[in-house]
Amino acid sequence: MSNFAALGLSDALQQALSTLDYRKATPIQQQAIPEILAGKDLMAEAQTGTGKTAAFALPILERLAQEEVDNSLRPIRALVLVPTRELAVQVTDSFYAYGEHLGLRIVPIYGGVRIDNQMRRLKRGADILVATPGRLLDLIAREVFTLDQLQTLVLDEADRMLDLGFIGEIEKLIAQIPENRQTLLFSATISANIEKLARQILTNPAYIAVAKRNAAANTVQQIAYRVDNRDKADTLSYMIQGGQWKQVLVFTRTKKRADILSAHLEEEGISAAAIHGDKGQRQRMQALEAFKAGKVRVLVATDVAARGLDIDALPRVVNFDLPNVPEAYIHRIGRTGRAGSSGQAISLVAPDEKAYLAEIEALLKRPLKLKAVPYYEDGSSEPIEMETSAPKTKPGARQKGKAATKKPTARQIAHAKAEQEAEQQTAAKPNLRPSFLSQSVPKSKGKKRK
Fold first, then answer.
1. Is 416 left (phi over 0), alpha (psi -120 to 50) or beta?
2. pTM as predicted
3. Residue 384: exposed, middle, or buried by beta-carbon count in 10 A (0-12, 13-18, 19+)?
4. pLDDT digits (tens, 9 = 90+) for 311-353
Protein backbone atom coordinates (compact mmCIF):
# COMPACT_ATOMS: atom_id res chain seq x y z
CA MET A 1 0.00 0.00 0.00
CA SER A 2 2.25 2.77 -1.26
CA ASN A 3 -0.27 5.40 -2.35
CA PHE A 4 -3.24 7.19 -0.83
CA ALA A 5 -5.85 5.49 -3.00
CA ALA A 6 -4.77 2.11 -1.62
CA LEU A 7 -5.22 3.40 1.94
CA GLY A 8 -8.99 3.68 1.57
CA LEU A 9 -9.29 7.46 1.44
CA SER A 10 -12.21 9.10 -0.37
CA ASP A 11 -11.96 10.88 -3.70
CA ALA A 12 -12.45 14.23 -1.94
CA LEU A 13 -9.38 13.66 0.23
CA GLN A 14 -7.34 12.35 -2.67
CA GLN A 15 -8.23 15.45 -4.67
CA ALA A 16 -6.99 17.70 -1.87
CA LEU A 17 -3.79 15.67 -1.54
CA SER A 18 -3.20 15.93 -5.27
CA THR A 19 -3.55 19.70 -5.06
CA LEU A 20 -0.97 19.71 -2.27
CA ASP A 21 1.32 17.53 -4.43
CA TYR A 22 1.23 14.62 -1.98
CA ARG A 23 2.14 11.81 -4.36
CA LYS A 24 3.13 8.98 -2.04
CA ALA A 25 2.26 8.14 1.54
CA THR A 26 5.14 8.18 4.01
CA PRO A 27 5.86 5.09 6.16
CA ILE A 28 4.00 6.48 9.19
CA GLN A 29 1.00 7.30 6.99
CA GLN A 30 1.00 3.87 5.35
CA GLN A 31 0.98 2.14 8.74
CA ALA A 32 -1.21 4.48 10.81
CA ILE A 33 -4.06 5.33 8.46
CA PRO A 34 -5.50 1.77 8.15
CA GLU A 35 -5.31 1.26 11.93
CA ILE A 36 -7.10 4.54 12.65
CA LEU A 37 -9.75 3.92 10.01
CA ALA A 38 -10.38 0.57 11.69
CA GLY A 39 -11.13 2.41 14.94
CA LYS A 40 -8.13 1.13 16.89
CA ASP A 41 -6.23 2.99 19.57
CA LEU A 42 -2.70 3.80 18.45
CA MET A 43 0.70 4.54 19.94
CA ALA A 44 2.98 5.92 17.24
CA GLU A 45 6.65 6.82 17.53
CA ALA A 46 7.69 9.11 14.70
CA GLN A 47 10.16 11.94 14.34
CA THR A 48 9.22 15.43 13.25
CA GLY A 49 9.08 15.70 9.48
CA THR A 50 7.83 12.16 8.82
CA GLY A 51 4.30 13.23 7.91
CA LYS A 52 2.65 12.32 11.21
CA THR A 53 0.06 15.12 11.08
CA ALA A 54 -1.43 13.70 7.89
CA ALA A 55 -1.19 10.23 9.45
CA PHE A 56 -3.89 11.11 11.97
CA ALA A 57 -5.67 14.00 10.23
CA LEU A 58 -6.57 12.10 7.06
CA PRO A 59 -8.32 9.13 8.71
CA ILE A 60 -10.10 11.43 11.20
CA LEU A 61 -11.44 13.53 8.33
CA GLU A 62 -12.41 10.40 6.43
CA ARG A 63 -14.38 8.93 9.33
CA LEU A 64 -16.14 12.16 10.29
CA ALA A 65 -17.12 12.94 6.70
CA GLN A 66 -18.94 9.61 6.45
CA GLU A 67 -21.25 10.44 9.36
CA GLU A 68 -24.48 12.39 9.17
CA VAL A 69 -24.77 15.14 11.75
CA ASP A 70 -27.14 17.98 12.53
CA ASN A 71 -25.47 21.06 11.04
CA SER A 72 -27.18 23.29 13.58
CA LEU A 73 -25.51 21.50 16.49
CA ARG A 74 -22.05 20.43 15.33
CA PRO A 75 -20.87 18.58 18.47
CA ILE A 76 -17.13 18.22 18.87
CA ARG A 77 -16.27 14.75 17.65
CA ALA A 78 -12.47 14.92 17.43
CA LEU A 79 -9.99 16.69 19.68
CA VAL A 80 -6.29 17.14 18.90
CA LEU A 81 -4.28 18.18 21.95
CA VAL A 82 -0.96 19.92 21.23
CA PRO A 83 1.70 21.50 23.48
CA THR A 84 2.08 24.95 21.89
CA ARG A 85 0.27 27.73 20.02
CA GLU A 86 2.46 27.35 16.94
CA LEU A 87 1.70 23.67 16.65
CA ALA A 88 -2.02 24.36 17.09
CA VAL A 89 -1.93 26.74 14.14
CA GLN A 90 0.10 24.34 12.02
CA VAL A 91 -2.14 21.34 12.70
CA THR A 92 -5.29 23.38 12.08
CA ASP A 93 -3.92 24.59 8.75
CA SER A 94 -3.21 20.98 7.79
CA PHE A 95 -6.76 19.90 8.64
CA TYR A 96 -8.15 22.78 6.57
CA ALA A 97 -5.96 21.88 3.59
CA TYR A 98 -6.74 18.15 3.67
CA GLY A 99 -10.46 18.66 4.30
CA GLU A 100 -10.98 21.43 1.77
CA HIS A 101 -13.80 19.57 -0.02
CA LEU A 102 -15.49 18.01 3.02
CA GLY A 103 -17.30 20.92 4.66
CA LEU A 104 -16.16 20.05 8.18
CA ARG A 105 -15.66 22.79 10.75
CA ILE A 106 -12.24 22.94 12.42
CA VAL A 107 -11.50 25.39 15.24
CA PRO A 108 -8.10 26.11 16.88
CA ILE A 109 -8.00 26.97 20.60
CA TYR A 110 -4.85 28.36 22.24
CA GLY A 111 -3.65 31.09 24.57
CA GLY A 112 -2.10 34.42 23.69
CA VAL A 113 -5.18 35.66 21.81
CA ARG A 114 -8.57 37.01 22.91
CA ILE A 115 -10.70 34.33 24.47
CA ASP A 116 -14.01 36.01 23.60
CA ASN A 117 -13.40 35.53 19.86
CA GLN A 118 -12.78 31.83 20.44
CA MET A 119 -15.92 31.57 22.54
CA ARG A 120 -18.03 33.03 19.75
CA ARG A 121 -16.62 30.57 17.23
CA LEU A 122 -17.21 27.61 19.51
CA LYS A 123 -20.83 28.55 20.19
CA ARG A 124 -21.49 27.88 16.50
CA GLY A 125 -20.14 24.37 16.97
CA ALA A 126 -17.14 22.49 15.58
CA ASP A 127 -16.43 19.03 14.25
CA ILE A 128 -12.74 19.08 15.12
CA LEU A 129 -11.00 21.02 17.87
CA VAL A 130 -7.22 21.61 17.91
CA ALA A 131 -6.23 22.92 21.32
CA THR A 132 -3.53 23.58 23.87
CA PRO A 133 -4.37 22.14 27.32
CA GLY A 134 -4.60 25.34 29.37
CA ARG A 135 -6.94 27.29 27.13
CA LEU A 136 -9.06 24.19 26.48
CA LEU A 137 -9.72 23.59 30.18
CA ASP A 138 -10.44 27.29 30.67
CA LEU A 139 -13.18 27.19 28.03
CA ILE A 140 -14.62 23.95 29.39
CA ALA A 141 -14.77 25.54 32.86
CA ARG A 142 -16.71 28.47 31.35
CA GLU A 143 -19.19 25.90 29.97
CA VAL A 144 -18.72 27.18 26.43
CA PHE A 145 -18.95 23.61 25.12
CA THR A 146 -18.78 20.00 26.25
CA LEU A 147 -16.87 16.99 25.01
CA ASP A 148 -19.53 14.43 25.87
CA GLN A 149 -19.85 13.35 22.22
CA LEU A 150 -16.12 13.11 21.58
CA GLN A 151 -15.17 10.12 19.44
CA THR A 152 -11.43 10.55 18.88
CA LEU A 153 -8.72 12.06 21.08
CA VAL A 154 -5.25 12.75 19.67
CA LEU A 155 -2.23 13.60 21.81
CA ASP A 156 0.30 15.08 19.41
CA GLU A 157 3.90 15.44 20.61
CA ALA A 158 2.91 13.79 23.87
CA ASP A 159 6.47 13.68 25.12
CA ARG A 160 6.76 17.44 24.87
CA MET A 161 3.47 17.93 26.70
CA LEU A 162 4.85 15.92 29.60
CA ASP A 163 8.14 17.85 29.48
CA LEU A 164 6.15 21.08 29.79
CA GLY A 165 4.28 19.79 32.84
CA PHE A 166 0.86 19.25 31.24
CA ILE A 167 0.23 15.85 32.82
CA GLY A 168 -2.21 17.39 35.34
CA GLU A 169 -4.23 19.05 32.57
CA ILE A 170 -4.26 15.83 30.55
CA GLU A 171 -5.60 13.88 33.52
CA LYS A 172 -8.34 16.49 34.11
CA LEU A 173 -9.33 16.29 30.48
CA ILE A 174 -9.44 12.49 30.41
CA ALA A 175 -11.86 12.59 33.33
CA GLN A 176 -14.29 14.75 31.30
CA ILE A 177 -14.46 12.81 28.03
CA PRO A 178 -16.22 9.54 27.15
CA GLU A 179 -14.40 6.34 28.07
CA ASN A 180 -15.67 4.72 24.89
CA ARG A 181 -13.47 6.66 22.50
CA GLN A 182 -10.56 6.18 20.15
CA THR A 183 -7.25 7.53 21.48
CA LEU A 184 -4.19 8.21 19.36
CA LEU A 185 -0.83 9.04 20.95
CA PHE A 186 1.99 10.41 18.79
CA SER A 187 5.45 11.06 20.16
CA ALA A 188 8.93 11.58 18.74
CA THR A 189 10.49 9.88 21.76
CA ILE A 190 9.19 7.17 24.05
CA SER A 191 10.15 7.46 27.71
CA ALA A 192 8.99 5.61 30.78
CA ASN A 193 6.53 8.43 31.49
CA ILE A 194 5.06 8.16 28.00
CA GLU A 195 4.64 4.41 28.40
CA LYS A 196 2.92 4.99 31.74
CA LEU A 197 0.55 7.51 30.18
CA ALA A 198 -0.17 5.14 27.31
CA ARG A 199 -1.18 2.40 29.74
CA GLN A 200 -3.61 4.83 31.40
CA ILE A 201 -5.38 6.18 28.33
CA LEU A 202 -5.02 3.58 25.54
CA THR A 203 -6.96 0.33 25.13
CA ASN A 204 -5.24 -2.53 23.32
CA PRO A 205 -3.37 -0.11 21.09
CA ALA A 206 -1.55 -0.86 17.88
CA TYR A 207 2.10 0.21 18.10
CA ILE A 208 3.93 1.82 15.20
CA ALA A 209 7.53 3.01 15.06
CA VAL A 210 9.00 4.39 11.87
CA ALA A 211 12.43 5.17 13.26
CA LYS A 212 14.88 3.71 15.73
CA ARG A 213 13.71 4.54 19.24
CA ASN A 214 14.84 7.96 20.44
CA ALA A 215 17.04 8.32 17.37
CA ALA A 216 17.89 11.37 15.34
CA ALA A 217 17.28 11.30 11.60
CA ASN A 218 20.23 9.76 9.80
CA THR A 219 20.11 12.65 7.33
CA VAL A 220 21.27 15.05 10.07
CA GLN A 221 24.99 15.62 10.54
CA GLN A 222 25.63 16.23 14.25
CA ILE A 223 28.65 18.28 15.34
CA ALA A 224 29.67 19.49 18.82
CA TYR A 225 32.20 22.28 19.45
CA ARG A 226 33.97 23.24 22.68
CA VAL A 227 33.17 26.86 23.52
CA ASP A 228 33.33 28.88 26.73
CA ASN A 229 30.03 30.45 27.72
CA ARG A 230 31.52 33.92 27.35
CA ASP A 231 32.59 33.18 23.77
CA LYS A 232 29.39 31.59 22.49
CA ALA A 233 27.80 34.69 20.94
CA ASP A 234 31.02 35.76 19.20
CA THR A 235 31.62 32.21 17.98
CA LEU A 236 28.10 31.90 16.59
CA SER A 237 28.25 35.22 14.72
CA TYR A 238 31.68 34.27 13.32
CA MET A 239 30.40 30.90 12.09
CA ILE A 240 27.30 32.44 10.53
CA GLN A 241 29.35 35.02 8.64
CA GLY A 242 32.41 32.91 7.87
CA GLY A 243 30.31 29.93 6.82
CA GLN A 244 28.00 32.18 4.80
CA TRP A 245 24.95 30.61 6.43
CA LYS A 246 21.77 31.90 4.84
CA GLN A 247 19.25 30.50 7.32
CA VAL A 248 19.71 29.05 10.79
CA LEU A 249 17.44 28.21 13.72
CA VAL A 250 19.18 28.72 17.08
CA PHE A 251 18.01 27.27 20.40
CA THR A 252 18.63 28.86 23.78
CA ARG A 253 17.64 27.56 27.18
CA THR A 254 15.97 30.72 28.45
CA LYS A 255 13.87 33.57 27.11
CA LYS A 256 16.37 36.16 28.33
CA ARG A 257 19.23 34.54 26.48
CA ALA A 258 17.12 34.38 23.31
CA ASP A 259 16.46 38.13 23.45
CA ILE A 260 20.03 39.14 24.21
CA LEU A 261 21.53 36.80 21.64
CA SER A 262 19.17 38.15 18.99
CA ALA A 263 20.22 41.70 19.87
CA HIS A 264 23.90 40.70 19.74
CA LEU A 265 23.52 39.22 16.26
CA GLU A 266 21.77 42.37 15.07
CA GLU A 267 24.70 44.43 16.35
CA GLU A 268 27.00 42.19 14.31
CA GLY A 269 25.03 42.98 11.18
CA ILE A 270 23.14 39.66 11.11
CA SER A 271 19.37 39.98 10.84
CA ALA A 272 17.78 38.04 13.70
CA ALA A 273 14.52 37.66 15.59
CA ALA A 274 13.63 35.92 18.85
CA ILE A 275 10.50 33.93 19.66
CA HIS A 276 9.54 32.66 23.11
CA GLY A 277 6.64 32.44 25.51
CA ASP A 278 6.78 36.09 26.56
CA LYS A 279 6.27 37.25 23.00
CA GLY A 280 2.71 37.89 21.85
CA GLN A 281 1.20 35.48 19.37
CA ARG A 282 1.26 38.10 16.62
CA GLN A 283 4.95 38.85 17.29
CA ARG A 284 5.81 35.17 17.15
CA MET A 285 3.97 34.60 13.89
CA GLN A 286 5.49 37.71 12.31
CA ALA A 287 9.00 36.60 13.28
CA LEU A 288 8.38 33.11 11.90
CA GLU A 289 6.97 34.41 8.62
CA ALA A 290 9.91 36.82 8.21
CA PHE A 291 12.31 33.93 8.79
CA LYS A 292 10.54 31.65 6.31
CA ALA A 293 10.48 34.45 3.72
CA GLY A 294 14.24 35.01 4.08
CA LYS A 295 13.85 38.50 5.55
CA VAL A 296 15.43 37.32 8.80
CA ARG A 297 18.60 35.24 8.67
CA VAL A 298 18.54 33.82 12.20
CA LEU A 299 15.57 32.77 14.30
CA VAL A 300 16.45 32.41 17.99
CA ALA A 301 13.96 30.30 19.91
CA THR A 302 13.34 28.54 23.18
CA ASP A 303 12.15 24.93 23.13
CA VAL A 304 8.55 25.87 23.87
CA ALA A 305 8.26 28.41 21.07
CA ALA A 306 9.99 26.16 18.55
CA ARG A 307 7.46 23.35 18.83
CA GLY A 308 5.40 23.10 15.70
CA LEU A 309 7.62 25.32 13.54
CA ASP A 310 6.94 24.22 9.98
CA ILE A 311 9.96 25.27 7.92
CA ASP A 312 10.70 23.49 4.66
CA ALA A 313 14.27 22.39 3.92
CA LEU A 314 15.84 24.14 6.92
CA PRO A 315 19.57 23.51 6.37
CA ARG A 316 20.90 24.03 9.87
CA VAL A 317 20.03 24.24 13.56
CA VAL A 318 22.34 25.35 16.37
CA ASN A 319 22.12 24.40 20.03
CA PHE A 320 23.45 27.62 21.53
CA ASP A 321 22.69 25.99 24.88
CA LEU A 322 22.31 22.26 25.33
CA PRO A 323 18.88 21.30 26.66
CA ASN A 324 18.69 19.99 30.21
CA VAL A 325 16.27 17.28 29.04
CA PRO A 326 18.02 14.99 26.55
CA GLU A 327 14.85 14.13 24.63
CA ALA A 328 14.53 17.83 23.74
CA TYR A 329 17.75 17.47 21.74
CA ILE A 330 15.99 15.01 19.42
CA HIS A 331 13.14 17.47 18.92
CA ARG A 332 15.47 20.38 18.27
CA ILE A 333 17.59 18.73 15.61
CA GLY A 334 14.45 17.24 14.08
CA ARG A 335 13.78 20.73 12.69
CA THR A 336 16.39 19.96 9.99
CA GLY A 337 16.97 16.89 7.83
CA ARG A 338 13.23 16.54 7.26
CA ALA A 339 11.49 14.38 4.68
CA GLY A 340 14.75 12.85 3.54
CA SER A 341 16.63 16.12 2.99
CA SER A 342 20.06 16.61 4.53
CA GLY A 343 20.67 18.92 7.47
CA GLN A 344 23.26 19.93 10.03
CA ALA A 345 22.91 20.20 13.80
CA ILE A 346 25.66 22.12 15.59
CA SER A 347 26.01 22.27 19.37
CA LEU A 348 28.13 24.82 21.24
CA VAL A 349 29.13 23.00 24.42
CA ALA A 350 30.52 24.88 27.42
CA PRO A 351 32.57 23.03 30.06
CA ASP A 352 29.67 23.12 32.54
CA GLU A 353 27.34 21.52 29.97
CA LYS A 354 29.29 18.26 29.65
CA ALA A 355 26.86 16.46 31.96
CA TYR A 356 24.03 17.38 29.59
CA LEU A 357 26.12 16.17 26.66
CA ALA A 358 26.67 12.83 28.39
CA GLU A 359 22.90 12.39 28.86
CA ILE A 360 22.32 13.15 25.18
CA GLU A 361 25.00 10.66 24.15
CA ALA A 362 23.39 8.02 26.36
CA LEU A 363 20.03 8.65 24.70
CA LEU A 364 21.54 8.52 21.20
CA LYS A 365 23.68 5.49 22.12
CA ARG A 366 26.59 7.12 20.32
CA PRO A 367 29.30 9.64 21.23
CA LEU A 368 29.35 13.24 20.04
CA LYS A 369 33.05 14.01 19.94
CA LEU A 370 33.87 17.55 21.02
CA LYS A 371 35.87 19.48 18.45
CA ALA A 372 37.67 22.80 18.50
CA VAL A 373 35.82 25.64 16.81
CA PRO A 374 36.77 25.70 13.11
CA TYR A 375 37.76 28.78 11.17
CA TYR A 376 37.30 29.93 7.60
CA GLU A 377 39.85 31.14 5.08
CA ASP A 378 39.16 34.21 2.97
CA GLY A 379 36.53 33.58 0.34
CA SER A 380 35.70 30.06 1.51
CA SER A 381 32.59 28.89 3.32
CA GLU A 382 34.15 25.51 4.11
CA PRO A 383 35.37 25.28 7.72
CA ILE A 384 38.92 24.20 8.52
CA GLU A 385 38.94 21.84 11.47
CA MET A 386 41.73 22.97 13.79
CA GLU A 387 42.25 19.50 15.24
CA THR A 388 42.96 17.79 11.93
CA SER A 389 44.43 20.38 9.58
CA ALA A 390 46.09 23.74 9.36
CA PRO A 391 46.32 26.23 6.51
CA LYS A 392 49.18 25.36 4.23
CA THR A 393 51.32 28.15 2.81
CA LYS A 394 54.14 28.19 0.33
CA PRO A 395 57.56 29.33 1.58
CA GLY A 396 57.70 33.09 1.48
CA ALA A 397 53.99 33.43 0.74
CA ARG A 398 51.68 35.50 2.91
CA GLN A 399 50.08 33.22 5.46
CA LYS A 400 46.37 32.82 5.02
CA GLY A 401 43.90 32.01 7.71
CA LYS A 402 42.50 35.44 8.30
CA ALA A 403 38.78 35.12 8.70
CA ALA A 404 36.33 36.36 6.11
CA THR A 405 34.83 38.33 8.99
CA LYS A 406 36.34 39.97 12.06
CA LYS A 407 36.22 36.74 14.04
CA PRO A 408 37.60 34.55 15.44
CA THR A 409 40.14 36.78 17.09
CA ALA A 410 43.67 35.60 17.82
CA ARG A 411 42.61 35.19 21.43
CA GLN A 412 39.77 32.84 20.44
CA ILE A 413 42.02 30.71 18.20
CA ALA A 414 44.61 30.47 20.95
CA HIS A 415 41.88 29.59 23.41
CA ALA A 416 40.58 26.82 21.14
CA LYS A 417 44.06 25.33 20.86
CA ALA A 418 44.51 25.52 24.62
CA GLU A 419 41.22 23.73 25.09
CA GLN A 420 42.50 20.86 22.98
CA GLU A 421 45.43 20.41 25.31
CA ALA A 422 43.25 20.71 28.41
CA GLU A 423 40.29 18.63 27.27
CA GLN A 424 40.36 16.45 30.36
CA GLN A 425 39.94 19.43 32.67
CA THR A 426 36.38 19.84 33.88
CA ALA A 427 36.56 23.19 35.59
CA ALA A 428 35.52 26.19 33.55
CA LYS A 429 37.98 29.07 33.16
CA PRO A 430 37.35 32.18 35.27
CA ASN A 431 35.10 34.78 33.81
CA LEU A 432 37.28 37.68 32.66
CA ARG A 433 34.51 39.98 31.46
CA PRO A 434 30.99 40.60 32.69
CA SER A 435 28.41 39.31 30.23
CA PHE A 436 25.11 37.46 30.23
CA LEU A 437 26.94 34.78 28.26
CA SER A 438 29.18 34.15 31.25
CA GLN A 439 26.28 32.90 33.34
CA SER A 440 27.03 29.36 34.35
CA VAL A 441 24.70 26.59 33.31
CA PRO A 442 23.06 24.80 36.24
CA LYS A 443 24.61 21.43 36.81
CA SER A 444 22.49 18.55 35.66
CA LYS A 445 20.56 16.82 38.42
CA GLY A 446 18.69 14.22 36.49
CA LYS A 447 16.00 15.31 34.05
CA LYS A 448 14.95 18.59 35.53
CA ARG A 449 11.87 20.07 33.88
CA LYS A 450 11.26 23.76 33.29
1. alpha
2. 0.60
3. middle
4. 666 889 999 999 888 878 887 887 776 655 678 899 999 999 9
